[in-house]
Amino acid sequence: MKSKNTIIKKDKKLNIYFTWTELPTYGYVLLKFIYLQINKKKYPINFKVISTITSKKKSYEEKSNFFKSIKWINPDKIYDWHDLDLEYPDIYFQSGWYIKPFKYLAKITKQKNKNSKVILCSDNSLKKKNIRQSIFRLVFRFLLRKNFDYAWVPGFSGSQLMLSCGFSKKQIFTGLYSSLINIYKNYISSKNRKKQFVYVGQIIKRKNIKRLIDAFNSITLNKEEWKLIIVGNGNLIFNKLQLGNNIKIIKHTSPSKLSTLYSNSHFFILPSLMDHWPLVVHEAALSGCCLLLSNKVGNIHEFSNKINSILFDPKSVHSIKKSFEKAMLLTNNDLNFASKESVRLGNIYNYENTYAKFIKIINLCLKERNIKI
234-249 b/e with 16+ CB inside 10 Å = b? Predict the structure, then answer.
């Protein structure tokens, strides 16, 4: 005989909390969207966001109830839920699995409320030959796995990592994250774009900028017609002789200016030696850029295919050079198809889809308690 679902009473709300390390702008906008949707649907949910303190807090300040509801905490301090003036959660989404207060909150949640569900949120991707990650996966399976009921990741590579950490396929959800889609939708036809490659990110060793510059400088095919624009900050410094006339480095700029740069460029290039889920790939795809990507980038599976992308080995200057030259030889028709395909793939990841997955996870957790909202 099937048991009937208990419907949450209007005066009884579910406590659903979401922690995030140094809440970034895209995270703030995404969680605010979820908060507003919950209120719009009038779901009986008390949704709270807890973030470690960030310098960006001032830029978020507004009179909205969402901003006022956020709890800002010290990343080095241990908290109980009562220290935050919160009841124990029914469902706890833990982003930032390594952050001391977040880990402790997950631990005590499972210890003190057997009906609570804890969801691990992670943007890490599987690195099969990475010794450090291999050790982490082993430690996680034996020491931390018991603290979590489900895992929520952005895409395919993240789901493979969670499988190796001890979650089953039924316990893993994709669809976490979305870039600032309302900003990076400044689409311009490929025929009106400039002959330039754009890199956006940190100027550090892991991002492989030295090989990127060396590869571009080694090009002989129509090189004078093309430019490489590097946008970012970091500890690597290049002189004018290394850059030449066709390479320009500019400091990291605002999302709106980045959107304009993406939309005026044919190509986006990311030569990283390792990247889990670089949001810049999503931004560039939404903006209609054709993509040149290192084969070590964690979201290739979601935003890249044979129509819109060229992949290369980031450890080989020759491989990067060949990707540049292959891109330069694409016809106007090729560029047009590639640009439209990037936009199509980029639009799959949006606030609505992330919210839908959020509700799906909640309903699954509640189903185990014969509860529905």
Answer: beeeeeeeebeebbeb
Q: Where are the beta strands (DSSP E) in 67-116?
A: 71-73, 91-95
Query: Greater confidence, 56 or 9?
Result: 56
Find the mean pLDDT for residues 2-29.
Answer: 80
Number of separate helices (H) and strands (E) present in the chain: 14, 15
- Contacting residues for 31 by C-beta, under 8 A, at least 6 apart: 18, 20, 23, 49, 66
Amino acid type, 358: F
Which CATH code of 2.40.50.140, 3.20.20.370, 3.40.50.11930, 3.30.450.20 fits the domain covering 6-178+350-372? 3.40.50.11930
* Tokens matching residue 238: 């290049």
Output the pLDDT for position 118. 96
Compute the C-alpha angle 334/209/122, nearest 5°. Answer: 85
Is pLDDT at 47 greater than 50 in this prediction? yes
The CATH number of 190-346, from 3.40.50.2300, 3.40.50.1110, 3.40.50.720, 3.40.50.2000, is: 3.40.50.2000
Residues contacting 184, CB < 8 A, separation 6+: 255, 258, 259, 262, 282, 283, 286, 287, 346
The single-letter code of the amino acid at 140 is F
Give the dihedral of Cα atoms 141, 88, 360, 354; nearest 10 deg. Answer: -80
What pLDDT does 1 receive?
A: 43
Predicted confidence band at 221 (pLDDT cuts at 50, 70, 90)? confident
Residue 290 DSSP one-character state? E
Q: What is the pLDDT of residue 215?
A: 96
Question: CA end-to-end span of the chain, whole Å?
Answer: 22
Length of the chain in residues, anyone?
Answer: 373
Share above pLDDT 70 across residues of the chain, in percent, rounded to a whole number: 97
Encoding tokens for residue 179?
A: 């870039």
Task: Please state the rounded mean pLDDT for residues 320-331.
Answer: 96
Q: Find the helix or strand (DSSP H, E) in which 247 lies.
A: strand 247-250
pTM (global) more than 0.85: yes
- Cα(69)–Cα(222) distance, rounded to whole angstroms? 55
Judge whether 207 and 314 are in contact, CB under 8 Å. no
d(CA 334, CA 306): 11
